[in-house]
Design brief:
Blueprint: E1 7-13, H1 17-28, E2 33-36, H2 43-46, H3 77-91, E3 94-96, E4 99-107, E5 110-117, E6 122-132, E7 139-140, E8 153-154, E9 167-171, H4 175-186, E10 190-194, H5 209-217, E11 222-224, E12 227-232, E13 236-241, E14 247-251, E15 254-257, E16 261-262, H6 266-270, E17 296-298, H7 313-316, H8 319-332
Parallel strand pairs: 1-2, 1-6, 2-3, 6-17, 8-15, 9-10, 9-15, 10-11
Antiparallel strand pairs: 4-5, 5-6, 7-16, 12-13, 13-14
Helix pairs in contact: 1-3, 1-8
Length: 333
């Protein structure tokens, strides 16, 4: 573990799977690294619903040479949490949980990374390069409608049981929305699914598609496609059909806006990284993951900008190897 004042090769912001993959690649490549996270190791996975199953197979979530062994089937949330903690122990990674990076100063070869710990105390760390792998769970993609700030509106879904015999609106058509709708239905909530497009998205897990299709077919989950939420009220929601303009008001107790999350551009912008206004993609070389600011790299879903579904753990885990290879070539050249 690096001591305060000691310069490490890489300061890695974010202890999600892609940040851990970068740190593991550094360890394998003989490059020193310290990982900082404002929360827990793999906190995004901690916030997944307890019974969530990954789309990817276990081997596509593996980091370096650490096997992800399952008896059968797809890995669960619990399996992934156990596996990534095992990766940290296997490589002896220097991970500083609950230590948020609040500022990055300096230049390639000599960066000063300022952090704030959970107890409010600050610290300074030096690094020759910085990898930002903070993920996309900084803030939700808001609906931006009246009433979204009501206590009954949630952008995280955890479990269905508290919503038994309640009127629940689920907004969205991707995996998170579809799986939430199905779990809520099975907990005997009265579920309505609303989506701005004309059906569920093509990327929904193939083993889930027949289930949601049948629930819709038999009227067990009500649907309003090509529809947006126009207003959220204390005891109802107002929907607007995007083609006809027809307004519908439904009785409602809870709203789950499963509309995705986005990354914060603050750290990247503070060090001069350009971000495309339309796509949200930071300026970077895809072959090396170095941004337009020398010595600053990105890893994981940040490289996808607003379209977080383009980069998953299974392809973002390889960014660390590209970064380490480029860092070593730059350092040794």
């Amino acid at each position: 573990m690096a001591s305060e004042g000691e310069t490490v090769d890489l300061a890695i912001v974010g202890a999600g799977p892609c940040g851990l993959a970068a740190a593991s690649a550094a360890r394998v490549g003989g490059v020193s690294a310290t990982v900082f996270d404002r929360g827990f190791i793999t906190e995004s996975i901690i916030h997944y619903p307890p019974y969530m199953t990954f789309f990817s197979t276990a081997e596509k979530l593996e980091i370096e040479d650490v096997p992800f062994i399952l008896a059968s089937g797809k890995p669960s949330r619990r399996d992934a949490l156990v596996y990534y903690r095992r990766v940290v122990r296997h490589f002896g990674l220097d991970v500083r949980q609950h230590e948020e990076v609040v500022a990055i100063e300096g230049r390639k070869g000599d960066f000063l990374v300022r952090t704030r710990r959970r107890d409010g105390t600050g610290a300074c760390h030096r690094a020759r390069a910085v990898v930002i792998a903070a993920g996309s769970f900084h803030e939700p993609n808001y609906l931006d409608v009246p009433g979204e700030d009501l206590p009954k509106v949630h952008h995280y879904y955890r479990e269905p049981d508290p919503y038994y015999d309640q009127d629940v609106l689920v907004v969205g058509g991707r995996n998170s929305a579809v799986e939430a709708a199905l779990e809520l239905f099975r907990a005997h909530a009265r579920v309505t699914l609303v989506h701005i497009f004309d059906g569920i998205d093509d990327g929904v897990k193939p083993w889930v598609v027949p289930d949601i299709t049948n629930r819709i077919k038999f009227g067990e989950i009500a649907t309003h496609f090509t529809t947006r939420v126009a207003e959220i009220r204390q005891r109802s929601v107002v929907l607007e059909h995007l083609e006809t303009g027809e307004i519908t008001e439904l009785a409602n107790d809870w709203v789950f806006a499963m509309t995705g999350w986005r990354a914060s551009p603050r750290l990247l912008e503070s060090v001069g990284v350009g971000i495309d206004e339309e796509t949200g993609i930071p300026g970077h070389d895809r072959a090396t993951m170095e941004t337009n600011t020398p010595g600053i790299y990105i890893a994981g879903v940040l490289a996808a900008g607003h379209d977080a579904n383009k980069i998953f753990i299974e392809n973002g885990r390889f960014h660390g190897g590209l970064i380490v290879e480029h860092f070593k070539a730059s350092r040794d050249g």
